[in-house]
Amino acid sequence: MQTIRNKLLKTAIRIILLLLAMFIIIAILVTQPVFSKRHPQQAISSIANLKKHVYMLSETIPQKTAMANLLDVKAEYIFEQLSQFGDKVSYQYYDVMGDTHKNIIVEYSGSNNNCGTYVIGAHYDTYSGFAGADDNSSGVAGIIELTNLFAQSQPACDIQLVAYTLEEPPYFRSEHMGSFVHAQSLKNNDVNVELMLSLEMIGYFSDEENSQDYPVKGMKHLYSDKGNFISLVGNLSQIGLTRFFKKSMRSSTDLPVYSINAPSMVTGIDFSDHLNYWQFDYPAIMVSDTAFNRNKNYHSQDDTADKLDYNRMAKVVDGVYYALLQHMEN
Contact 176/183 with Cβ under 8 angstroms? Predict the structure, then answer.
């Protein structure tokens, strides 16, 4: 009897150790821990400009514009801002049920002909016509500021910065999304996309305890219960890429950076424009403040410009910029 008990105990211990090992392996694959020293680069993004763009897109334009032409007025503003920093700015027109919609694209030519094209995008439409300060005027403001930064440097690779239309319902997950149209055009023209980054809500932060939620129970033990970080989101085929950007962004600013690599069945993993680049087999990562997992004003009239943290938003843009430059050099 004692022998049987010992065997059962040993078996139970083996099972527990196996489950523990599996948990550790999965946690490492999902969270991609990195160990890097902080070497903050010069702060270069303009906090004032980011704030100006968010207020214009989320407060000024909606207050003075009828819903029928709201997207057109926003597109004109974005086009005008991008034109200040780039010579090659264009609209990408397409029709949806008789109505014409448009992406706005600014392009920079790289100095190295041997590398692919980098795409950085954010959608400028908002849910149900709400102000959409965080979702996603913050991302568009980031695109405008990145355009300014790249205009002052000579990137090694070709870059397309894109402001997309029709990301929000009822068009989400359809071929009418502006990002689907753009990704499809790249594929049809045999463009070699090195990487796509989707800036999806980058302005809401909180240092309060329990201000951060997660889609899966127990994730709080792997990350943080404070919404004071920016997240990088990729699928399981982007583990190395996510790890690179996480390490680079962590080393270039003092902003906490977390990441997750998981299949699309995990809620939120593919909740933005990057999903359309995955459909065309392009590598893509979402940069996000985790949206509704943190910002309870998500998809409501309370998502207003006064609730955002423009100082930390600038650090996100800085981190993205420096990480892109470093990736192009590798």
Answer: no
Specify whether the CB–CB gap between 154 and 113 falls below 8 A: no
User: In a structure prediction context, what are the per-residue pLDDT tens digits for the chain, which is 330 residues long?
Assistant: 567 666 666 666 666 655 554 444 445 545 666 666 666 788 999 999 999 999 999 999 987 877 668 899 999 999 999 999 977 999 999 999 999 999 999 999 998 888 999 999 999 999 998 999 999 999 999 999 999 999 998 899 999 999 999 999 999 999 999 999 999 999 999 999 999 999 999 999 999 999 999 998 888 888 999 999 999 999 999 999 999 999 999 999 999 999 999 999 999 999 999 999 999 999 999 999 999 999 999 999 999 999 999 999 999 999 999 999 999 998
Place of tokens 């990441």: 259
Q: Quick check: bond before 261 cis, omega within 30?
A: no
If you write DSSP's letter for every residue of 68-84 in order, what string do you get?
Answer: GGHHHHHHHHHHHHHHT
- Where residue 214 falls (left for φ over 0; alpha for ψ -120 to 50; beta otherwise) is beta
Distances (CA, A) of 117 to 157, 181, 239: 6, 17, 20
Q: What is the CATH number of domain 42-329?
A: 3.40.630.10
Q: How many residues does the chain have?
A: 330
CB 159 within 8 A of CB 117: yes
